[in-house]
Amino acid sequence: MQIKPRQHLLDIWQAVARDSFDGGEWAWGKRGGESSVSDAERLLCLLYPATEIPAFRLDDPDTTQDDVQKVLRKAGGRLEVPAKLVLAAAQFMRMHTGEDKRPTFAGGSYFVSADKDRDLTEEQRELGVVDSYSMSITLCLATLGFLKVYESKTRRSDVLETIQELRAATSNRLTAAMVSLLRSFTVNAFDTDSSQGRTLCELLGQGRLSQRHVLQKFQRRFRPLRAAIVESFVLGVDVQEGLKDENQLFECGWGWSIVKDAPEVETDEEIGPQPAGVANQVPYLYFTVVALDGIQDLFSDRTLTLGLLNSEQQKLAEALRLRWEITQQFWSGIARFDSDRWPLEDIPWRTTGQKLESEYFSLSVAAILVHDLMRRRATDDDLTRTVSVMERLAERGRVTSRMTRDDPMVQLHNPGVTLPLQGSEAVGPPMQWIMTDFSAQLLKRTIQLCTLSRNLASHDRLLRLAEDIFGHVWLRRIRDGEGAGLWDNVHAAYPESPVSEGPVSWSITERVTEVMVQVHQMYHQPPIRSLELTQLARALLSESAHLLGNEQMEPAPASEGNRGMELRGIEVKLRRARDLVDDQPGTACALTLDVLGQLDALARAREAAAQGV
Fold this sequence. Notes:
This protein has 613 residues and is mainly alpha-helical. It contains 21 helices and nine strands.
């Protein structure tokens, strides 16, 4: 299925407007307010494209395009929609602010009890989660950028008053989210003989390297990174003394929430008391990927151009950037630990902290590798091998291959992969987090790689894979009833899976929306340049220019007709071809071939006229 980002985004926006506006007013629905993650994802389905794609802008009503107005008519006219988005964002900030005026990041309904006989306590449901911290960064930056433009476009005093309140609350929430992400980062050091150490050695050695060999190689590869962690971290992390011992292995990344005993982060911003940490000091692959996605928005061109961060937030952003870079380098090194056979290529991945094994974790490591490949200049070998991993994950996950009878792989999508949230048992029954977005995440990482790739063969493979995955994801839209046109109906793609009767999955809907924005940005890149086509275009240009010069030396026939006008048209085409030869050699070839045909027609006409005489 071909990915048409504009049309698909319009379809999604129409479905979101139908589901989220009641009588022209924003409606959170019966599950609104239950989870700060879900509510942020719902808002981002509209705000993210509206602030990232000029054609979908809503902050300047005079530039809102006709097809955008049409799909959002359930929300109101072009002047009403931005005002209602401001009110919805203000409601979100109020709903997720505590009585002590402190921003809250509750996982709420996204948390699940591991004990069927005991429900989660209210205290547990109100615990912050890395998903919410990361999503809040993206939402707050989108909101601040939206307000920066819209404030100068409206004269309604009530809306202007709400904008002032919303800007302050949004900036405060952004700071609190950044502080919480700093306090959720952790470095876990352990002995090679520990349970975690043995698991990591087996993963890296792949049955071919001894534990001693793995440790020696680990020491050499990560010595600079180990030193950087020990020397550089000041804000929000307590580096264990064990990390300084090179005979110990370590992992770094983000826990599921603020880690236990995490020191408070000093800040001049009034974000209220910083809550005590609950999560064990163990990195989770899933939450690490989620954190990396949010943090990179702090350094986007849009954030820097609009100056969305104040001086205190810039300081926090630099601290997060350090962790962002170190984490990518670490997991990229782990994924490619052995150049002959990457541990990432040994699917499925086994986690050390939670002792779990799944294709989802292979995808998580691949996602971090994609982040790292985007950060530095990826080699063709790295890119080609990563493409193969993505293709295998799509096949193993039954996204591009058929489901067999009683196939256990259906559990990857429904009910999903379950993560135990270590440390949650200290405040109630053990908690779990369920991940059902394997297909959406696979599509997102494939598109990111496709955007990165400048190799024609790899790009073509990735684009075909992305279209296959997208066809699968699009099939899983809800067909009718509540949430029609949104996600997720797993039963539509996997008839053997249970029919979903739950609410709309804003998690998957937001990720698909994000993918459409990425595809739009990918198509706005210059096409991949082919050296062969460039050489051919230059040769065709040379021949065309020579023949044109020859034609211009010929005496004009008695009945010249349109010959002079045709020659001027040929000159224009050749000029255009020369301008495009470096960036679009295929187009340059097409233009010069047309010119050669015209010049040949003129030559034949002249020969025919001469024979007639």
